[in-house]
Amino acid sequence: MKKILAIVLAVAMIASVAVLAGCGKSGDTKATEAASKTEDKATADQATADQKTGGTLTMATNAYFAPYEYYEGEDIVGIDVDVAKAIADKLGMELKVVDIEFDSIITGVQTGKYDMGMAGMTVNEERKQSVDFSDSYATGIQSVIVKEDSPITSVDDILAEGATYKVGVQLSTTGDLYITEDLGDAAAERVTEFQTGNDAVAALASGKIDAVVIDNEPAKSYVAATAGLKILDTKYIQEDYAICFAKDNTELKDKVNGALKELIADGTVQSIIDKYITAK
Q1: Which residues face 71 on adjacent strands?
Q2: Residue 264 Cα distances to 91, 137, 216, 260, angstroms
Q3: What is the per-residue pLDDT across 185-238, written as a single tens digit (0 to 9) for each?
Q4: Which pLDDT score, from 0 to 100, does residue 30 have?
Q5: Which candidate, 69, 276, 64, places its Cα nearest to that of 170?
Q6: To pair with 180 at 20 to 30 A between CA atoms, which of 35, 95, 114, 235?
């Protein structure tokens, strides 16, 4: 009888511990979720406070777009970085530059993960549906890179009826948007999207594609660094570069735009552009 009683008591104790453990796990999960939400709110509140009282100005970019942004050793430098630093100085803020994939910049800015995006970003109607833009601070040109012995002499050769040339672009850039739109139904077979301009140019050099559509200044850098390539003389598209912001972040946009206007007026922006472009 004592043995039976001991077994019953042991089972009861195990069940009790299991119940307590189960309750503890549920409570821990709820506590973790609550803490996570509190942390997220605190981060968002801190970002807002930083924008209002100085603090950090976080710029999202894709650092493979020389001379606008590129690596010099471990540092990201270029036209956009220098312009952003000048803006941050005007606002009494510290600039933080974050290197991410180009097609993630707008989403990151929309969600508030980054304060603004600068990456040689062109203003167009599609992007204006998602973000707001500052005044333009530079003008860009979409160019076409081909091999030196290529039969392609202009964009018209690529767009000609019956043409089968393969074109490489950097994903989600305006070069991607323009050539995809112009090729229409044929784009699915003839346009290849790459994560970086480097990847697209490497594919051209190895013969996997016939041309690359990309902004003219990065195109110069790629051609200078890669034997056997050239830029076509004819321009494809001319466009304006600007800084993007979340649509609900009008206070920061107005502050940055005000600083940018002053920097354009006093010649600072042009001197930065000349430093990287005229000297090349």
Answers
A1: 76
A2: 15, 7, 22, 6
A3: 999 999 999 999 999 999 999 999 999 999 999 999 999 999 999 999 988 998
A4: 43
A5: 64
A6: 114
Name the phi and psi angles at 250, rounded to 5: -70, -30
Cα–Cα distance, 63 to 8 (Å, whole number): 69
* CB atoms near residue 158 (< 10 Å): 23
Neighbour-count burial of 72, counting CB atoms closer than 10 A to its CB (0-12 exposed, 13-18 middle, 19+ buried): exposed
pTM: 0.70
How does 19-56 read in b/e, with b if 16+ C-beta sit within 10 Å? Answer: eeeeeeeeeeeeeeeeeeeeeeeeeeeebeebbeeebe
Residue 183 burial (CB count, 10 A)? 18
Neighbours of 14 (CB within 10 A): 10
Most distant CA atoms of the chain, gap in Å: 101
Q: CA of 186: how far to CAs of 68, 154, 208, in Å?
A: 32, 18, 17
- 114-128: per-residue pLDDT in tens? 999 999 999 999 999
